Amino acid sequence: MTQSRFIRVKVKPNARVSALEEQPEGTWLARIKASPVDGKANAELIELVAKRFGCARSAVSIKSGAGGRMKLVKIVSL
After folding, report:
1. What's the predicted TM-score (pTM) here?
2. Residue 16: what pLDDT?
């Protein structure tokens, strides 16, 4: 049986190091090295979330906010 989890992520592109941190209010802050050009920041975000939650990149998708800084990310786990 597969289960889905949704997390709200605020993205800060052009950071020195990539990091994903949970905030006290329950949202996540993603610092991304890539710039928000040609989907590079979104691709790096998906990779970062997959690594953090121990799943495949194909199990992570951006459900809303692909063009903005606040994103709703879906994580599917088995």
Report:
1. 0.93
2. 97
